[in-house]
Amino acid sequence: MFLDATKHQPQGVTIENCQIGDTVTVCGMIHNVRVTKWGGFIVLRKSRGLLQTVVSNETSLFYDEQGNQVMMSELCREMAVSITGIVGEAKIKDPAAFYNTIELAVSSVTILSRPTTAEVVDMNALKFGDEETLLRYKFDNRQVTLRNPRDMAILKVQSTIARAFGDFLAANGFTQIFTPKIVSEGAEGGANVFKMDYFGKQVYLAQSPQFYKQIGVGVYERVFEIAPAYRAEKHNTSRHLNEYISLDVEMGFIKGQEDVMTLEAALLRHIIATVEKECAHELTLLNATAPVLPEQVPAWKLSEVHEILFENHLCEADHRGEDDLAPEEERAICKYAYDKYGSDFVFVTHFPSEHRAFYAMDDPEDPSLTLSFDLLMRGLEITSGGQRIHKEADYREKMLRRGMNPDAFHFYLDTFKNGMPPHGGFAIGLERITACFLGIANVKECSMFPRDINRVAP
Ligand code: AMO
Q1: In angstroms, rounded to a whole number, what is the distance separating the alpha carbons of residues 455 and 134?
Q2: Whose alpha carbon is nearest atom 20 of ligand 1?
Q3: Pairing with 16, which of 114, 302, 361, 363 sits 20 to 30 Å away (CA)?
Q4: What share of the chain is helix, strand, coil (3-state, %, to 5)?
Q5: What gap in Å lies between CA 157 and CA 337, rounded to an integer?
Q6: What's the CA gap between 377 and 443, in Å, rounded?
Q7: Contacts (Cβ under 8 Å, ≥6 apart) of 138
Q8: Closest residue (by CA) to atom 22 of ligand 1?
Q9: pLDDT, tens digit, for every residue of 7-36?
Q10: Which of 71, 90, 113 is the last residue of a domain?
């Protein structure tokens, strides 16, 4: 016996390549069905969105799983069906439908499989009094509510962002790596690390692939990873997840952190262009506009941001002297950058050494600061990055200064003992960049199955 492996491509006319007047067979799920006196409508859901089909009492036929003829009233939402029909021009060009220039005049519908509950979740009626109740309902029933076109569109854009990220980096000499998520030490410090029992030994879930991507630079010079990262966030906020997807980049032979920032700007430009090109339907459906990334991206030191906001009376509080950006500052500096320079992005650099992770390179001109940056987009931090320490002695000295035990990090330090180029990198939170791109207030909506302090299922 042989499997005819040439058959994996769809043969003949499909819904993607059809012309007006063609007969086409298309499989999908029934998103909605409406019976009228003369026939009715079946809205079919495909991977990219909805297709309108029109039923006529005179010409449309219906068959069940055994091939027996049935009535249209047999059809219901979330049935898997195969519909054959003639392609016509759409009477109503509904922007909510993906296939909104065509409709199908149904010749036949075959039921392939049907839901077993009479109370199928109505994707069109996800409306509740308040946003919080709606979100809770959607997350509680995420396995089915994900089928609603709005959520499908969000995750489609997210998927496109992740692919564009990988494509750009691969085309620029970066190697994709896959690093462990069960680790012996947290890379980022702080209290938000998940502890885990590992055959009687305490281990952790990786807060980031930081150590491993740096190790990767010693091997491949330029690396990237797309993988989950874990943070035990104790508060339920609209910007934090306990498991998020980290888009990580690390590159060797840099002259300074500007090389890393320039690469990130070029990468973002590619991501934005790709989403605009490939997800026009999703952007329309979500009423979203692509962000603006000018050629000259605003980049200020943290101390300058505090000053700008204070001098222009743009924040309620005076944040000068603080060692991080307050959320109100993130919003205010982004508004300022947009109003003054037309940019949806702002780099903030030179964070205090004490406030950044130990691997950040201190600024030789002022060692109380680091050569590190955050990138803000439309009011939210989407990236941290910077230049790293690349000499073992500098690591040991900084670790001891911080009261850390260098021996606990022996494999990491061994990397530098064996020689490492000057290097740096950054990480973008996938859910955050998706939310900022689409103007979605809560990052959890940009996670297929969000994990927060109260939720580990579905
Ligand atoms: P940082 O801890 O700032 O840096 O994380 C980088 C980016 O990851 C996203 N992010 C989160 N998204 C959702 N929920 C969370 N709990 C969460 N925590 C972080 C944010 C953030 O900007 N190793 C460094 C990066 C580097 O220097 O290369 C790091 O992890 O978008």
Answers
A1: 15
A2: 429
A3: 114
A4: 35, 30, 40
A5: 25
A6: 13
A7: 126, 145, 151
A8: 383
A9: 887 778 999 999 999 999 999 999 999 999
A10: 113
Residue 79 to residue 92: CA distance in whole angstroms: 24
The gap between the terminal CA atoms of the chain, to the nearest Å, is 42
Place of tokens 């030789």: 364
Q: Which two tokens stand for residue 204?
A: 């952790």
How many other C-beta atoms are found inside a 10 Å radius of the C-beta of residue 231?
A: 21
**Substitution site in 361, 432, 451 for ligand 1 pocket (most atoms within 8 Å of beta carbon):** 432
Q: How many CB atoms lie within 10 A of CB 442?
A: 16
Question: In Å, how far from its chain's centre is CA 262?
Answer: 21
- Atom index in ligand 1 nearest the CA of residue 375 equals 22
Please tell me the distance between residue 69's alpha carbon and the centre of ligand 1 in angstroms.
Answer: 57
Amino acid at 393: A
Ligand 1: centre distance to CA 4 (Å): 47
CA–CA gap between residue 232 and residue 229 (Å, rounded): 10
Average the pLDDT over 373-387 and give the result: 98
45 lines ligand 1 (CB under 6 A): no
Ligand 1 proximity of 423 Cβ (cutoff 6 Å): no
Beta carbon of 429 within 6 Å of any ligand 1 atom = yes
| Tokens 């009423």 -> residue | 287
pTM: 0.97
CA distance 194 to 453: 12
Place of tokens 């305490």: 202
Tell me which residue range forms the domain holding 297: 145-446
Largest CA distance in the chain: 84
Classify strands 50-56 and 345-349 as parallel, antiparallel or unpaired.
Answer: unpaired
Task: Please give the DSSP secondary-structure letter assigned to residue 324.
Answer: S
- What per-residue confidence (pLDDT) applies to 96? 85
Q: How far apart are CA 406 and CA 410, in angstroms?
A: 7
Q: Check which CATH number belongs to the domain holding 73 and give it.
A: 2.40.50.140
Reduced to 3 states (helix: H, G, I; strand: E, B; else coil), residue 102 is strand
Q: Tell me: the pLDDT tens digits for 109-138?
A: 999 999 999 888 876 666 666 888 889 989
Q: Is the CB of 425 under 6 A from ligand 1?
A: yes
- 29 with 82, same domain: the answer is yes
- Does one domain contain both 108 and 200? no
Is any atom of ligand 1 closer than 6 Å to the C-beta of 324?
Answer: no
Cα–Cα distance, 80 to 29 (Å, whole number): 4
Q: Among 42, 41, 51, which residue's Cα sits nearest to residue 14?
A: 51
